[in-house]
Amino acid sequence: MTVETKVERGLFDEVMVPCYNPMEMIPVKGEGSRVWDQGGNEYIDFAGGIAVSCLGHCHPAMVNALTEQGNKIWHLSNVLTNEPALRLAKKLTELSFADKVFFANSGAEANEAALKLARRYAADTHGEEKSEIIAFKQGFHGRTFFTVTVGGQAAYSDGFGPKPGDVTHLPYNDVDALKAHFSDRTCAVMMEPLQGEGGIIPPTPEFAQAVRDLCDQHKALLIFDEVQTGNGRTGHFYAYQGLGVTPDILSTAKSLGGGFPIGAMLTTTELAQHLKIGTHGSTYGGNPLACAVAEAVVDVVSQPETLAGVKEREALFREGLAKINDKYQLFSEIRGQGLLLGAALNEEWQGRARDVLVAAGKQGLMVLIAGANVVRFTPSLVISKQEIEEGLARLDKAIASLV
């Protein structure tokens, strides 16, 4: 007979690799935009599992999809295909520019596939010397060695030995720097259509258009990392649809599964043919359970009323944060789109984003940070207006405790 280990926060330090520093409380139950910990304390969730829980916790559409598929078939591998994967792929192509889909388990894996496709396409059509990947400082594209190298934050990629080569980082939103550097050696540009981890930085329309134009001029591919911005987060199903700039390859994950791990790379028929049989793969990619849940998520999120509701909720957040700022004078600006918002701290509050996060937790509110100076909000896309008001009231109390 096995003795059950008592699960407390101290057990993390005993058994887990110390690359995270989780909060003291352990959530055990979630419903909608509320979470309860082991002690029965209730929290309003403005974090959404870092832009993942787009329908909140335990949404009936997701629970039903998972339960139904769980009683049918769980896993097959890519030696076979399955119905949920095919249905989901069809829906994603109907909702985007894409013709073809590759399924993975995470945003990093979707980005890895996107980068490998870009390099393979360039080698096949232009030769091995066309291999440079341009990315942007403060960008974030995942934690595999290739994607973390392409991401523009050296702190995440240093210290692991020689990095994948031919990757250039330029300043985001700097059209002149981009024009000066671009050449026929450039194979692809990878960018977030709204930088997430880098501080919730939107591109200027001029910058987004310049990237597309330069890619066209130099026969390079444009990869949009929509891991955080995709699946309704900005109020468009994909953020590129609000920019008026269409990529050649798009990666998506996070909100795609609403909490069930899944990622996808979307592209065109012309490009997809360069990943021939055996050139890339994923054992769990296209898993029936993941795809069934993601299909349910996509069905809800893609509804016009859901997307319109994101914009309505954005307005409520902006209004509420402006009122808090009138009282405490701590934000320099509110950045972002839809329900991917960042409250940038002003000079007097520099470096205190984590202080706000911790204080909010004590008041029963879960928020995020994006660097040391931005408080980030990525709640459920269907969070109730009453929960927004109540959460903002708790944020007010948290900030009052720091003044």
Describe the structure.
There is one protein chain. The chain is of the alpha/beta class and 403 residues long. The protein is 39% helix and 17% strand. It has 15 helices and 15 strands. The strands form three sheets. It has a seven-stranded mixed β-sheet, sandwiched between helices. Strand 14 and strand 15 form a beta hairpin. Helix 3 (60-70) runs antiparallel to helix 12 and helix 4 runs parallel beside helix 12. The longest helix is centred in the C-terminal third of the chain and has 25 residues, at 304-328. It is globular and about 60 Å long. The termini are far apart.
Largest sheet: 7 strands, mixed
- What order do the strands of the largest sheet run in, or round the barrel if closed? 4-10-9-8-7-5-6
Helix segment tally: 15
Proportion in helices: 25-40%
Low-confidence stretches: none
Element string (H = helix, E = strand): HEEEHHHEHEHHEHEHEHEEHHHEEHEEEH
Tell me, what's the shape?
Answer: globular
Briefly note the structural class of the backbone: alpha/beta
Gap between N and C termini:
53 Å
Kindly report the average pLDDT value. Answer: 97
- Strand percentage lies at 15-25%
Number of E-state strands: 15
Cα radius of gyration in angstroms: 21 Å
